[in-house]
Design goal:
Largest sheet of chain A: 8 strands, mixed
Number of strands of chain B: 10
Radius of gyration of chain B: 22 Å
Low-confidence stretches of chain A: none
Order of helices and strands of chain B: HHEHEHEHEHEHHEHHEHEHHEEH
Mean pLDDT of chain A: 95
Shape of chain B: globular
Helix content of chain A: 10-25%
Oligomer: heterodimer
Helix content of chain B: 40-55%
Structural class of chain A: alpha/beta
Number of helices of chain B: 14
Chain lengths: 517, 353
């Protein structure tokens, strides 16, 4: 495999799955030219009388869509680990004897372990999307036929819009839909909140199939997905397992160390003068990115201020903020629990957003860049503040990028991470896989202290008089090495690239190598 | 990531015990070297029961810290002795003291394992300046604990279910013997825990049983069980016992430290309970969760009028010293030395808050 060193100093392949690549050129340095991609022009005369797009089953819909070997099929992760549509879809594709599919999910989950057999028998050629859990392990050990391509949520939209990925057939699981193909995630037994991740697919794919377990009379409102873009509608018994779609009880961590980090995050945001009337922040659904919210709320109440908007990952904690008047709006990219779903259904100030508005590199601006502060996690961060979210220190692919890369553009990007996990240091000399350039990461907050990126002199000036435990990142690393010892280098086979990490602009940021099993 | 290092450690310990030809299986869940060494030593000693040699890793730098009899002890965090995952970051939550517990939080079948782990933890874990305490088991099992931990920089020994001065004296005999044998010079202080009706009756004789007693404390779970009542939020059932403890401690010139507040989720209840303890004369409280520490410190912090008064007293004291006067006074009011000492303590604790 021919490799080239990119601007970040990482070796990346010239070709991936036979397609020529552009190496990373630096943050905001690469701007593609030309016009956006577009699907073929449809005609309404091709659609049946009374616009009834119902077909009897998914196999029929795939046949009518002209499914062939080697096509690109997209699915979406709003049903999260409760998704039953994708597994069923590939059962059907397999039964039709189709091979070499490029699967283009917005994310994958452990429930998709079912698909390993289709990777093995050649039904699926490779995955372009997050490689987590069992699929990550499968790909990491070099078993996938093609090379995985990892993109952020925004990067996925960039690839669709500039034609890098042309979707032949998009399959959109919909908790509610009508026969015309209007669909939303707000109602029905499989309600999941917003369907924003499927929006670009519905517009740019050649064929769009809605799969629902809750067919309602026309019109299905609000139509998060517009029936104008839909070719076929299929009704099944169940699209997902409700208990796994929304956890119902997204709870804040009880770990005292995580809570300490969360407390530092809130104090840091205060010291950095981010907490002022009309500010905004983005929260997630896991670990510390949720746990800092109660600390922030307490400070907001003390200061008698409110946020103009919060972005999420909506959970009951953000919904409480909205309902208590601590924020004017929730701009929701993904709805994590039942309270989030309820709020989006009932509250006009809880707005569904999509990667078009939030993250898109080919947009005329995006929301992620407008947020005052974002709190993110990472598996590793190095002495230059470069960070990794996709692989563990042993080189194994275990997480997707999600919106993480896109969120780095916030006014203040905070990585809230433990200084080590199960003896494995999080602060390393060099990240195993580069996912986010250190230029965009402003502070690393651990339970052992806070390191501000030396390039952010303005930020340092603001926080240095606080009582926060400010340290250099090397100083924290040294202490962790004192506790854990220095870890060995991961055993990677540098001759075999199993996946590549794209930057938000579509250039190649890094390679993921085959790891020892 | 640490496979090679773990193997090296196991080989070192094996050769220390002259163990050869053994098949050793290690499951790695991210334990630190001090834990791996302790677990291996335990496994070895369970097979070779007469083995007495201790495998000690070198003591980590910066871990030998001084303490003093009257240092501030607002909070002391209980850590189950046999759960290393709770040890590592305990000091980050800034308790005044940590207690590595060998008693109630350790299953009877794991006492050997916990003793070795706690010994290693005292030498390997940085508690970031917290006073290092160990709660030993009731005697005679506690004697084994003492032999194991006394040589490894423990600051305070907590004596559970203490009912008489004889227990204190016996504990001290073992401590002194071990200190003599190992040529140890640092002071080790004692904190007897009164947990029974009889203990309450004998509180004063316990508090005065030895010069190295730094504090008297009470364990309310066992005390309420002993007198046959339920522990309540209001705590009326233990009011007498707690008052006796405070009074005995103050009469003996040692600190009075309150029991733990067990409802971890109830931060408001904890704060109220600490204020009440402080009002009764206690100087600190036990904590069973790191999130209780900050609240406890806040509650035991001196109030603004207390701080103002202490500042005036210390100023008068300094003034008198400058003028080489033997009598300290504010206006026409004379100040006794203990009052000055208390004022200095208040200002010190204000600084720590």
């Amino acid at each position: 495999m021919r490799m080239i060193k990119n601007k970040a100093g990482r070796l990346v392949p010239l070709y991936v799955n036979g397609i020529k690549q552009i190496p990373f050129k630096g943050v905001d340095k690469y701007k593609p030219k030309g016009r956006k991609a577009a699907p073929a022009i449809p005609s309404c005369v091709d659609f049946p009388e009374a616009e009834n797009k119902l077909v009897k089953n998914l196999k029929k819909a795939l046949e009518l869509s002209g499914l062939k070997d080697g096509m690109t099929i997209s699915t979406h992760h709003h049903l999260r680990n409760g998704d039953m549509v994708t597994n069923y879809l590939f059962d059907v594709i397999h039964s039709m004897g189709i091979k070499n599919i490029r699967w283009f999910p917005s994310a994958s989950f452990p429930c998709h372990e079912h698909l390993i057999k289709y990777l093995e028998d050649g039904t699926i050629h490779h995955i372009e999307g997050s490689l987590n859990g069992p699929l990550g392990k499968y790909a990491s050990t070099g078993k996938m036929e093609g090379t995985g391509v990892l993109r952020s949520h925004g990067g996925r939209y960039q690839a669709i819009q500039d034609g890098e990925v042309h979707i032949d057939i998009a399959i959109i699981a919909a908790p509610s839909a009508d026969k015309f193909g209007n669909a939303n995630g707000l109602y029905g037994k499989s309600a999941c909140g917003g369907l924003g991740f499927a929006l670009a697919d519905s517009i740019y794919a050649d064929k769009v199939i809605i799969v629902t377990d809750n067919l309602v009379d026309f019109p299905c409102v609000p139509w998060q997905i517009s029936g104008n873009n839909v070719d076929y509608v299929v009704v099944v018994d169940s699209i997902g397992d409700p208990a796994k779609i929304v956890s119902g009880t997204t709870e804040i961590t009880k770990s005292p160390d995580r809570l300490l980090i969360a407390e530092y995050v809130a104090e840091f945001m205060d010291a950095a003068r981010i907490l002022k009337d009309g500010f905004s922040f983005q929260a997630g659904a896991g670990g510390t990115s949720l746990a800092f919210i109660p600390f922030i709320k307490e400070k907001m109440k003390q200061k008698n201020i409110k946020a103009r908007f919060v972005r999420g990952g909506s959970t009951k904690y953000l919904v409480e903020m909205l309902e208590e008047g601590l924020t004017d709006y929730i701009l929701d990219g993904q709805t994590f629990d039942l309270e989030g779903v309820r709020s989006m259904r009932e509250n006009p100030k809880h707005i569904m957003t999509s990667p078009f508005t939030s993250y898109n590199f080919h947009g005329k601006g995006n929301f992620a860049s407008m947020v005052d502060a974002v709190v993110l996690g990472a598996t590793e961060v190095d002495l230059n503040f470069n960070a990794n979210v996709v692989t563990h220190s042993d080189g194994m692919l275990l997480h997707g990028i999600g919106g993480w890369q896109n969120c780095l553009y916030a006014g203040c990007t905070i990585l809230a991470v433990p200084s080590f996990r199960d003896r494995i240091p999080v602060i390393v000399d060099e990240v195993t896989t580069l996912c986010g350039p250190g230029d965009l990461i402003d502070a690393v907050i651990t339970e052992r202290g806070i390191a501000v990126n030396p390039a952010r002199k303005d930020l340092i000036k603001k926080v240095k008089k606080s009582s926060l435990p400010l340290r250099s990142i090397a100083d924290i690393q040294e202490e962790v090495y004192e506790i854990c010892g220095r870890p060995a280098k991961p055993k990677l086979d540098k001759r075999k690239v199993v996946a590549v990490v794209k930057w938000v602009d579509g250039t190649l940021l890094d390679s993921v190598y085959k790891a020892a099993e | 990531m640490y496979g090679d290092e773990i193997e090296k450690l196991i080989r070192t310990i094996s050769s220390f015990y002259e163990l050869t030809g053994a098949e050793i299986e290690i499951e790695d869940y991210g334990a630190l070297p001090y834990t791996i060494a302790a677990r291996f030593e335990t496994a070895y000693k369970r097979i070779f029961v007469h083995e007495t040699k201790e495998f000690l890793l070198p003591i980590k730098k910066g871990l030998i810290t001084p303490t003093s009899k009257d240092r501030i002890r607002r909070s002391r965090l209980y850590l189950p002795g046999n759960e290393p995952k709770f040890h590592i970051n305990a000091g980050l939550h800034k308790p005044d003291g940590i207690i590595l517990d060998l008693e109630d939080s350790v299953h009877p079948s794991e006492k050997d394992s916990a003793r070795i782990l706690v010994r290693n933890a005292l030498r390997a874990v940085n508690f970031y300046g917290a006073e290092k305490m160990v709660r030993i088991n009731q005697l005679p099992l506690g004697f084994e604990d003492l032999k194991s931990i006394v040589p490894h920089n423990v600051h305070v020994i907590l004596i559970p279910k203490c009912e008489s001065k004889e227990t204190v004296i016996k504990v001290n005999e073992v401590i002194n013997a071990v200190k003599k044998e190992k040529n140890i010079r640092y002071d080790i202080y004692l904190m007897p825990i009164i947990e029974s009706a009889l203990g309450v009756v004998n509180a004063y004789e316990i508090a005065t049983a030895s010069k190295n007693i730094c504090a008297l404390t009470i364990g309310l779970e066992d005390y309420t069980a002993d007198i046959g009542v339920q522990r309540t939020e209001a705590g009326l059932e233990s009011f007498y016992a707690r008052s006796v403890i405070v009074n005995a401690a103050k009469a003996a010139g040692v600190q009075a430290i309150d029991s733990v507040y067990s409802d971890v989720g109830n931060t408001e209840g904890l704060y109220k309970s600490c204020l009440e303890s402080k009002a009764l004369g206690f100087e600190g409280k036990g904590c069973i969760h790191p999130r209780q520490i900050k609240i406890t410190h806040k509650a035991f912090a001196p109030s603004p009028p207390e701080i103002e008064k202490a500042k005036l007293i210390v100023e008068a004291f300094n003034e008198a010293r400058r003028k080489s006067q033997s009598v300290i006074s504010i206006g026409s009011k004379m100040i006794d030395p203990p009052v000055v000492k208390r004022a200095l303590k208040i200002l010190e604790s204000e600084k720590q808050n």
